[in-house]
């Protein structure tokens, strides 16, 4: 894509620290325009978080092999090292995590952490940095922001901590926000508030955002496009409406069908996907979903399917996509 | 309705939160504060609420995994923990399945040994307990020839949860308490386990107390729903009535927080702001009043008692109690 803010090409991530190398990401291509939100949707082990962390190079260097290319705003991320990598993190792209308690430093006040981040990247005085931290806290709507800047992370409720982490991530005006299940640990009434806040900030600041989640309804709520991952590959990607209404990969279709939704008619059972997600250290040849797929034929087990265009900007890695029923 | 199988009255649990120099509690967490409910034979009662609402503590109190500070539990009219029904006898009737399928299995026991363990403790001879374990494994979809000799770490999360369900059934209980049984599972596996639970309920004529934070799953599984907020019952009633016409403002806000799954109907405004308050020093009066759009003076002063508003549907809200002093309360009946 021309002018893409984030461009991932042929990303493969292999962890080599264990007894057997594990390929957690196996050929991911993804491009995001400025201001665009893409949800990476998948189950545990699908490679969604590993993909996200690769963009900030958060994997341990000595135990990880990364192949392919990642460019963010023209920067070749995989070639960065030392100072250049530190400059990149936080200023061009930054990340928010599922557990703010693990991402925030427990022994510094929230204000100090934000001020430190600003001073690390920019030539401003401590006073200016503090003023900006206050504006950030107002922006993420933390009540009594002045007082909260002097709080320690443990003094805040879960939702407030998540807001503080968002403020920290935005401190140096990044262009790309990487969100790793930021609402998964939150209660329903708080999750909605954080999703709305993220959507609003993203629009207002023109941020591009990659949002990792296992929850389709969260993806639908925040994203322009959804990329469904399975066993290290993007198996389907397209505009939210297209993926939700006309899924073209049997795994996506299965996920949508198995959702408990509405009341239970007497005796009715949920549709299921048989089996369980595969072992990444022992993947079958061909399509990794084939062993669980009702539509699988011999050709599926022979070679991993290439992405097939199934609609405008909508592709699926499935050679049997046309066999899926089209909703009325 | 017939007499309840299980009656819970005035259940209270406090934990010391801070202690002084001499180990005396100086402040307490009021985790469960006067919870009443009935469980009827053959039903599924769903329990929903956010973290800190006391739903898991309630489950643990029921099983006597925690000592209640106050309250009584009656099973078929007999008081549990008394001479008429000692805890050990009660526990044969009521078993629990936890969220963490791994932590709840002994890593050194094979799957079949885990399932047979309970009956052995209760005096069933080894051969009989093992034969029954194999039967149960087959019943939960784990072929005994393949799985009986495996250890927990050799199984997937979904398979481990099936083992936990088999183990819970080993004593032939009549009630299963299911505490977030599918919350740790991948979505593609969740539906399999929910279907299994429905099948087993029919096959063994079980009664379920189904605790979950997932409002879609609770709606799907439950006949009635109990909504908890900060240790108290906010609302209880038939599932569809609760989901279509909830009467407690908290229930309404909680249900409105469910995401639509429709890109053309995204949430535009959060139903309530802020987080649930800390259960240490909870708000006085109605515990929800600090977040409630309809709160008035009376709400901060007095805790509303659960009040029946329709058959089987009770609400703890001053707006539903005639003569409560809330401006939206119905006029006192003649």
List keywords for this structure.
heterodimer, A: 328 residues, alpha/beta, Rossmann fold, eight-stranded mixed sheet, 12 helices, 12 strands, 22% strand, globular, B: 334 residues, four-stranded antiparallel sheet, 11 helices, 23% strand
Helix percent of chain A reads: 25-40%
**What's the total count of β strands of chain A?**
12
Give the tally of β-strands of chain B: 12
Q: What would the CATH topology of the domain at 6-92 and 174-230 in chain A be?
A: Rossmann fold
CATH homologous superfamily descriptor of the domain at 6-92 and 174-230 in chain A = P-loop containing nucleotide triphosphate hydrolases
The total of helices of chain A stands at 12
- SS content category of chain B: alpha/beta
Spatial order of the strands in the main sheet of chain B? 6-7-8-3-9-10-12-11
Largest interface: A-B, 44 and 49 residues
- How much strand of chain A? 15-25%
Report on this model:
The complex is a heterodimer of chains A (328) and B (334). Chain A has a domain at 6-92 and 174-230: P-loop containing nucleotide triphosphate hydrolases (Rossmann fold), CATH 3.40.50.300. In chain A, helix 4 crosses helix 5, helix 5 crosses helix 7 (158-170) and helix 7 (158-170) runs parallel beside helix 8 (188-205). Chain A starts with 5 loop residues before the first strand and ends in a 12-residue tail after the last strand. In chain A, 34% of the residues lie in helices and 22% in strands. The longest helix of chain A has 18 residues, at 188-205. Chain A is an alpha/beta fold and 328 residues long. The radius of gyration of chain A is 21 Å and the shape is globular. In chain A, the strands form 2 sheets. In chain A, strands 6-7-8-3-9-10-12-11 form an 8-stranded mixed β-sheet, with helices on both faces. A 4-stranded antiparallel β-sheet of chain A has the order 2-1-4-5, covered by helices on one side. The model of chain A has no long low-confidence stretch (mean pLDDT 93). Chain A is built from 12 helices and 12 strands. Chain B has 334 residues and is α/β, with parallel strands linked by helices. Chain B has a domain at 6-229: P-loop containing nucleotide triphosphate hydrolases (Rossmann fold, 3-Layer(aba) Sandwich), CATH 3.40.50. In chain B, strands 6-7-8-3-9-10-12-11 form an 8-stranded mixed β-sheet, sandwiched between helices. The longest helix of chain B is centred in the middle third of the chain and has 18 residues, at 187-204. Chain B is globular. The interface between A and B is large, with 44 and 49 residues.
